[in-house]
Amino acid sequence: MAASAPGSKQGLMAESSIFQVSAGKPSFGGMTMPGLVRQNSLENTEAKTRLASLIEAYDKQEEPVDTQAVQDVIVRHLATTLVKTPQTVDSLATYLATAYSVRDRLIQRWNETQAYHESLQVKRVYYMSMEFLLGRSLDNALLALGLKRVYSASLADLGFCMEDCLEEELNAGLGNGGLGRLAACYLDSLATMDYPGWGYGLRYQYGMFKQTIVDGYQKEVPDEWLCDPNPWELPRPDICYPVRFYGHVTSVNASDPASPPLTTATGQASTHRQRWEGGHVIEVMAYDMPIPGYATNNVANLRLWSGKDVGLFDLNAFNAGNYTQALDAKMEAATLTAVLYPNDNHMLGKELRLKQEYMFASATLQDIIARFKQTGRPWVDFPKLVAIQLNDTHPTLGVPELQRLLVDEEGLDWDTAWDIVTHTFNFTNHTVLPEAMERWPVPTLEKILPRHMSIIYDINLFFLQKVEKVYPNDRGLLNRISIIEEGYPQQVRMAYLAFVGSTTVNGVAAIHSDIIRNTVFRDFLTYYPASKLVNKTNGIAPRRWLHQANPGLSALITEVVGDVSWVKDLRKLTQLEERIGNAEFEQRWMAIKHANKQRLTAYINQVCGIKVNPDAMFDIQVKRIHEYKRQFMNILGVIHRYNQLKAMPENRRQREQPKVVIFSGKAASGYYIAKLIIKLINSVAEVVNADDSIGDLLKVVFIPDYNVSVAEIIVPASDISQHISTAGTEASGTSNMKFVLNGGIILGTVDGANVEISDAVGHENIFNFGCLANEVEDFRHTQRYRPMAIHPALKSVLKCISEGMFGDPNVFRPLIETVTSGGDVYLVSIDFPSYLEALKAVDRAYKDKTNWVAKSIRCTANMAQFSSDRSIHEYAQEIWDIKPCPVPSNT
């Protein structure tokens, strides 16, 4: 097997395999299992050669997949890995044993993939993201390996149910929203399409939080997703890197024997360099998660970093009676990756978040450099083997960190290093909201990362000097594009640093890319070529978001296409349109939708204690709770509908379309207004759902603790889904794609990917409303200085809230004031009238079931453009310059 790069400067065990397998495989019950060989355990060259041949032979073994063989492996893990007896086996143990048996297969393919890619020295992409919302892994892995049926049968023979087994898995707490779900989809597509690529992130001990609802309010409790053993992660204690904080910077002469001379890539000597010293250093340890490709031998890798607390116990302090001090270092290391995005409403939270981002960037870059150095190639070849994608601004410290490592640690001169940096990084921008544009106070950076602050100053100086040569005397331009924003204190604009440090910058939907081209990065494009900023519309993985989440619809599609090849090529879904007008097919289509609604109905009853009618229209909005996403406008529309129903005569009321309005999503723990929106939704639900005169004509549900697994139940059940952000504020969205792929129809603004979805599925198959992006600023100006009269329908609804129909009106006053006296930044009052008209149009269309099912089929049939496979192919061809490298079969 070809050796891979080591994991640290000390020369670690080759990474070409996660586990090195010994020649003598201990047996248990007729089965064989791998044993771990420690680093440098074999000094004899002949023994090493023999071991390498045995490992290669082991990796080429084809394990049988009949039910008996699967049962044997599961039982082996129950008995030896989990130490269970027949009397102590439960569903959790069965899940773990099943997962370990599947992981065994993934590890073998992982080994083969890494060895093959390394033997060819192919260029890899490294996708850096602070979030990866993977969801559950077992079902996904079984489907990818084509083993779902044999494992289901094997478990059934052992007396266990596959569904119960799958339910035992906790969702990995590695993300909190669309950013993380996108990253997970992209890893799936990288592996499935055979592109050489890894993901890099942080291993949070606790996820964002688990959401509970108490008296209508969101309450946060720890998301202890690692409370059970996690069979999908592989601890790598041999792969650790030092990460420094604080300290000071000193100048060092190249003649200093402790400091190797600074040289260019061609060997030209230089005389000056900087050294970062002092402060304190922690060790950061790797955890690997294999990411299987669907119907391919390729297995990608997600490497997560965690502060290593081993060896940090201060025995002297403990013996002296300073018990807390003895644990300080361990606690600090653990704290760095304790929680996803710590609350940064206070300075300590801000500093912790900055440390998280730097720890992530530094460990990742050290790891990539170590792997590159194993190739023996010159530094000028670094961008030929490495492409790094920054998923939003969180990993942007990777830009000055790579420059530091190349200049301070590897001895390259500034210009050579900067040329490597700017030909290695690429940056995805995900927002236009000012509050989401990450900035760091200069004093904070100088305190925690003094060397990086000096590097950022130099990057900015050299960049502005180059611009000034082209545009002399334009101080306004220099001020607008400066990475350092003037103020008290000065701020480092991370999006600008990412832009300057990257080869290519991309938006994530056509309208979003146009907006950032004309706003955030407009001045940069007076200097850089227009081709530096491109569009790469987001996509979703059809394996999880249709094949796995909606097995009934997946089976029907497979019947139409003739095989399951559509899972890797959504263009084949266009064949569905040929079945429109076929009454039997349309009935089967809607029967699958109804079954999915029944599944969601049962879940709502179980979790919320609310009984809803699956025959009603399911109107769904699930996503992070935020003012710009306008869940507030949605619940105002619900109140309007409720008032209308109450005002109708009984005989007229019963002719109305029954509707279940479903919300789900989390508000950031420090986001007061978003939390009030959740409270209002639940308060409205309490009143509406208890009104016997309304009954099933209107129900309101808030499903707590939204995550990937909950989404897999919700998405296939939608009749209509709402994506109603203020135009120009939602970069793309991906939940809109998931709903439409599953035959759901969109009610949405002309924003984000809604625009492209409308073009793809047909404008007659989507319900658009609201002002356009180019009108938003004019409306905001009007609302701020000369507010327009509030529409009577909205005025009536707000009056209901302020008069106490849904509880103490003082509770909701700050929420109401965002519309009435707060400038109405997100234009609820402007769009509310057209929103009500769009809701009426949905009601009318839904009554025509024949036309509605045709819309539903057309939606699914035309979603090929929104596959993450298409997105990744575009990134690979147009940004990363990488090619598919399928691992050949051993048979």
List keywords for this structure.
alpha/beta, Rossmann fold, 24 strands, nine-stranded mixed beta sheet, disordered N terminus, 33 helices
- Strand order, largest beta sheet: 7-10-11-4-3-12-13-17-18
Question: What is the 3D shape?
Answer: globular
What amount of the residues lies in strands?
5-15%
Assigned CATH superfamily of the domain at 603-852: Glycogen Phosphorylase B
The biggest beta sheet reads: 9 strands, mixed
* CATH arch. level architecture of the domain at 603-852: 3-Layer(aba) Sandwich
Please report the total strand number as a whole number. 24
Helix vs. strand class:
alpha/beta
What number is the mean pLDDT?
Answer: 89
The number of distinct helices, counting runs of at least 4 residues, comes to 33
CATH topology of the domain at 603-852: Rossmann fold
How far is the first residue's CA from the last residue's CA? 17 Å
Level of helix content? 40-55%
Q: Uncertain segments of ≥5 residues (pLDDT<50)?
A: 1-42, 58-62, 264-270
Radius of gyration: 28 Å
The first-level CATH class name of the domain at 603-852: Alpha Beta
Modified residues (N6-(pyridoxal phosphate)lysine): 738
Keywords: Allosteric enzyme, Carbohydrate metabolism, Glycosyltransferase, Pyridoxal phosphate, Transferase
Function: Allosteric enzyme that catalyzes the rate-limiting step in glycogen catabolism, the phosphorolytic cleavage of glycogen to produce glucose-1-phosphate, and plays a central role in maintaining cellular and organismal glucose homeostasis.
EC number: 2.4.1.1
